[in-house]
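ZP: hey, is the flavin-adenine dinucleotide complex queued? I don't see it on the tracker
AM: it wasn't, my bad. submitting now with these inputs:
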Amino acid sequence: MRRDVVIVGAGPAGSALAGVLGELGWDVLLLERRSFPHHKVCGEFLSPEAQASLQGMGVYAAVAALKPAPVTQAKLVSRAGVTVQTALPGCAWGISRFALDAALAAAAQQRGVDLCTQATATAIRQDGQRFEVIVRSGHKVESIQARAVIAACGRYSLPGLPPYSDPRSRTGQRQAGYVGIKCHYQQVAMPAQVELFFFPGGYVGVNPIEGGRVNLCLLATPAALDRGGRTISSMQEAIALWNPALGRRLAGGQALPETEVAVAPVDTYRPASPWAGVACLGDTAVMIPPLCGDGMAMALRSAELCAPLADDFLRGKLSLAGWRAAYQTRWHAEFDRPVRLGRSLQTMLNLPLLADVFMGFGRLAPFLVTALFRATRSARSRP
Ligand SMILES: Cc1cc2nc3c(=O)[nH]c(=O)nc-3n(C[C@H](O)[C@H](O)[C@H](O)COP(=O)(O)OP(=O)(O)OC[C@H]3O[C@@H](n4cnc5c(N)ncnc54)[C@H](O)[C@@H]3O)c2cc1C
């Protein structure tokens, strides 16, 4: 069977783009290796900037219907207990990936997209203007022909994306640096704010999500994880000792073990590659450090940037080379600066002395913290 477009990965980027192209009348196959709904490691903080992209791609109402928790403030607590609190530049949403990813995939289906779950793309091949995607579904292996392929497979890469970029080999030791774990809690009294607690070797983000729950998500080095005991409950106890403010926040809360998931390795320093033989969206192109809370907004925005170019390509108005050049130019213009700043911010906040100096300044002038975090937003999405 020959499709107009195959999109690999039904995260926010893949599902949002699929929906737009489906609505434009293209025959879109959206491949997802897992089934819905599923828990995903994420802070579940959907920044105010993401809402403009949701609106731009016609899926704002589908996400608003999930009744996300409003988040209007941000609080940072250093290892030494220095605290900075600042207003967010708009109302963010706390929303579980369990609900969000399923809703975006369902919205794409409603717009005519063919969603195929438990289907893993194992290779992408290109022959002139034609693409072939090899898909494994259980024991079945299928070859799908397509006029266009788009990679939205998150931080994973695919053999066959030329040049093949295996995330495990790109940045060597630094790559082994982070492990992500997340878990939902109930019975935690939490204001409408996102809170970041730093500890030796990582940080924890806590914010309210829909249904009165709270999401806790940590990013830590394997060494910190070893010190803390490797499970969310033992880590929670250890971090509460390293940063007592977290212990106070979670006091009386009950972890929901069925929501606990972990992921490794998380490489927030991998070089950007918005095009690797095909257009790469979201985390496939680059990962901004999670503490910026902007990964999903960037994923959605990259889908928004790609949609009109993919449409022009399918209509024959743009060559593959033209699509590549235009997408790369727009992508770099929007994301190079925020990613660079986000990485510097993460490096600084992980260094105890610098973090305390930063927090000290932030206490005196919270608008500086707001301005810095704003600078980690792409030019288009800044409100
Ligand atoms: C610890 C941590 C905390 C974070 N916190 C936040 C936060 O609070 N706010 C925020 O905005 N961002 C946060 N992020 C970043 C955010 O999770 C990502 O930026 C976002 O999920 C990127 O969306 P995506 O669509 O590009 O990729 P993903 O959401 O990763 O989706 C990719 C999809 O592709 C599927 N897939 C992969 N390979 C294949 C294949 N070969 N075939 C078929 N399907 C495939 C995967 O199963 C997945 O569903 C965090 C990240 C981490 C690691």
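AM: back. The CA atoms of residues 29 and 215 lie 32 Å apart.
ZP: great, adding it to the tracker
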